Hints:
The structure holds two protein chains of two kinds. Chain A has strands spanning 5-7, 10-13, 19-24, 31-37, 43-50, 53-57, 65-68, 75-79, 88-95, 106-107, 111-115. By secondary structure, chain A is mainly beta. Chain B has no helices and nine strands. Chain B has one domain: Immunoglobulin-like (Sandwich). The termini of chain B are far apart. The A-B interface holds A 4, 33, 35, 42-45, 48, 55-56, 58, 89, 91, 93, 98-110, 112 and B 30-32, 34, 38, 41-46, 49, 51, 87, 91-92, 95-106.
Amino acid sequence: EPEVTQTPSHQVTQMGQEVILRCVPISNHLYFYWYRQILGQKVEFLVSFYNNEISEKSEIFDDQFSVERPDGSNFTLKIRSTKLEDSAMYFCASSERRQGPRRKLFFGSGTQLSVL
Amino acid sequence: LAKTTQPISMDSYEGQEVNITCSHNNIATNDYITWYQQFPSQGPRFIIQGYKTKVTNEVASLFIPADRKSSTLSLPRVSLSDTAVYYCLVTLNYGGSQGNLIFGKGTKLSVKP
């Protein structure tokens, strides 16, 4: 079964540093997402992306965050200046359908980001 | 926006059937009901989706009554590996103009030997 892959699985960084989380969505999917989950809390929506632009973003996705599809296969999330509260598991997801009631998201295994 | 309510946690034993009920009283006509499963330190995984009556796949069954105000995820003969958090989502315009999936707290299922 095709899957979404994320690298690295773990990332440790110092507060204030920039990090880039990488994802390879399923090859025929056109819609991409980032979610995050702070330990013990809910899975939170960050941003959705289609046709090389952001479709929707949450309040969490402020100016410190950016997303990019640098080539035909990768989808990245950049945090410019990390804060302690950015420590979380970050999940990338992709789907064939943009919206609609039957949309199904496929999630990667996540990148555990630890900001020290 | 449709809101879902499901139990915070459930316990079961290996080999038992587990039924997790989700209420969604203000579900809209075009809404589908979707369940995801999340193992510790992994991303959510789609389990099953339905609109009405009963849907069955190799993993689970989903029962939806005629009024569609609730749904029940049924896991037959659970094993230890079914220990996970199960999320019920009503998918259409659920959060934001694009209808991005918004996860609640889910039901934490613990299967014991």
